[in-house]
Design brief:
six-stranded parallel sheet; alpha/beta; 11 helices; 346 residues; Quinone Oxidoreductase, Chain A, domain 1; 25% strand; single chain; Rossmann fold
Length: 346
Amino acid sequence: MQAYRLFGQHDLRLQDEPDPDLKAGEVRLRMAYVGICGTDLHYYFAEDDALPSRPRHIGHELSATVAEAAPDVTSVSVGDRVAVFPLISCGECGECRAGHPISCERVDRSVSTVGCGGPIGGLAEHTVIPADLAVKLPDSVSLLQGALIEPLSVAATAVLRANTNRDGVALVTGAGLIGIGCALALRATGVSTVVVELSEERRKTLADIEGLTVLDPVSDDIDGIVRSMSGGSGADVVFECAGAAKAMDLAFSITRRRGRIVVIGLHERPYSMNALLVLAKELTIQGHSGESREAFEAVIDWMDRGLLPVDQWVTLVGYDRIVEDALEPSRRGRLIKAVIEVPRPR
């Protein structure tokens, strides 16, 4: 088969590789679509000293069709369309039982995530994975949408764990796909949601979605609008998805007393927090990464019910244009979500 492998900084090569062997409990997948994630950008652009574990396969946001199943597999069948939950875990340790497979105590995460050091990722014609990671898609959810389930489930996990009161107000900073995912997940759970986004182009893409209040941090009175929506108290929870110091400043000022700030955005620089303000307002500061199986399946259900209209933010990219049309423009912030269409093997 043909597969891309990353050999070093800016060195992504398409090459012939043997198909991986199929063992008991596993399925062979024929790739359909793979989303480009911030993790993939880090792998591609990181200096060699910062990421010594190359060469490696990349692409952990993927959808596929089951091409072959081991005789003992009963959860999926040949021909099923699936999305891949990428986190291999034991399912038995304390972290797994608590719904945190990303921090499974019995696996080495650096080699136990599909497309992130574990099994071959989405930038290949085939991969072989444990069958329980292949989640069957309902007829109403396309394979293209299937490649968006993993990143949206990261956002959905954050929303479900925040346990926001349906009578409250949530604020999301940043309208990349994770921020959009948080906003749509909040909308799906019935929470009044404000999205703050600096880019006029991104604000326009959200303007027609019912149930969202979309604001410009430069020209709109965010504090006044949020307080009018919340009876003067402020936001119950802020999902900080921008990875920017000004977004964190807004979060601390707009969150109500005993409210919650969930940090999802990747901050490249340290942020100085006002600990006295946290104490005075009795705030909860929560970091978030990864996804739960519960949220992964919730996203599929919301897609099935038409509650996640995400296709409009996708830029489809050809398999031979990954660097020029996906990695480079994503790095520069020109795309909300690049998705690679993987051609069928000849």
